[in-house]
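Internal tracking record. Fields below are filled automatically when a chain is submitted to the structure queue. Please do not edit lines marked as system-generated. If the sequence contains nonstandard residues, flag them in the REMARKS field before resubmitting.
Queue: standard
Priority: normal
Entity type: single polypeptide chain
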Amino acid sequence: MSSTASGKNGTWRNWGGTVAARPAREVTPASVEELADAVRRAAEDGLKVKPVGTGHSFTSIAATDGVLIRPQLLSGIRTIDRDAMTVTVGAGTQLKRLNLALAREGLSLRNMGDIMEQTVSGATSTGTHGTGRESGSIAAQIRGLELVTADGSVLTCSEKENPDVFAAARIGLGALGVVTAITFAVEPLFLLTAREEPMPFDRVLAEFDELWAENEHFEFYWFPHTGNTNTKRNNRSAGPEKPVPRLQSLFEDEFLSNGVFQVAQWVGRAAPATIPAIAQVSSKALSARTYTDIPYKVFTSPRRVRFVEMEYAVPRAAVADVLRELRTAVDRSGMRISFPVEVRTAPSDDIALSTASGRDSAYIAVHMVKGTPYQAYFTTAERIFTAHEGRPHWGKVHTRDAEYFAGVYPRFGEFTALRDRLDPDRLFQNDYLRRVLGK
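SYSTEM-GENERATED OUTPUT FOLLOWS
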């Protein structure tokens, strides 16, 4: 599946169908030198520059009317260092290709998100994450970065080399330069045992601290209009491998999780009054199961139903309060919400614009099916999230601006000062960055 949609007349569209842009030209560089040359030429022609991955961001973070850089030729593994336990990959490498290649080498990332369609640079630049008690976002696993800056020079950074750039560029929003390669920390391939089971909403909230503390990776989905959740706990295992049998996987992961769910969305759109009843059925469709497999087969799952999403990171201690407020608001509003609310966690990290920067975080994500009006629901949710000093995912729908971010990110000024130094003429600017980082 190619997730980057390019329409007629050179129009670029994102995966969720929420953003369209018409760049003046597209460039697909085959080397870092070609990319640097494209950046210099754009500056000479007075055009802005934006790299774009697979378009999985719901915001207009990748949109440009200038030069669109497609990084797919800058892909694949450059080097594996088994002494340092790192792997260096081209920025355009899709996560699924990286996961497969690492598994063949007996290696794995420590943690990852739940889809793997994105490029490594797109995923890390927007702060894509999974869930973890001690292990953070994909960007938190970065040990080195190479990027082409506004003057066309190639800058490498790590904890030792240009550490000020490293502190910010791991989640750089495309504002500091074009990432060309990333070095990740990796581990010997390990096994995870996943335990998925339904649990009442009130019990999950009452026991959240214990569930978080007792599991390396804990997450749950709450179905609005019901008191039901599906929980998932992933923990390291000595084995043996016990993957979900293929037929069962086809039935549960494709038919129930995607097929039946898609039908439920269609029915819900046609007859919104039926949504609470459908939610009761959907929330009970998946029964408990336990399986053991290599990490990417446990962490990631196919997402066939197209949707629009808003996600905020709140302080982990606030998660139960935020969810109770969200439930009350949905119940009072008369809104009909057919998509479950996803809840995950991340430990505090040291990346300037990471949603977990300097604080242990819980993520709460609200979704609506593509094509349904989502504004009322998202506005209601955002009001609750921001009252708890929430930080929105950089690639998901939100209405916040630089003034807000300066208040919720202690190191916001550090990032904008670095941007002033690396891109004084705002070659990498677009409307989204103007809003979230200020002029």
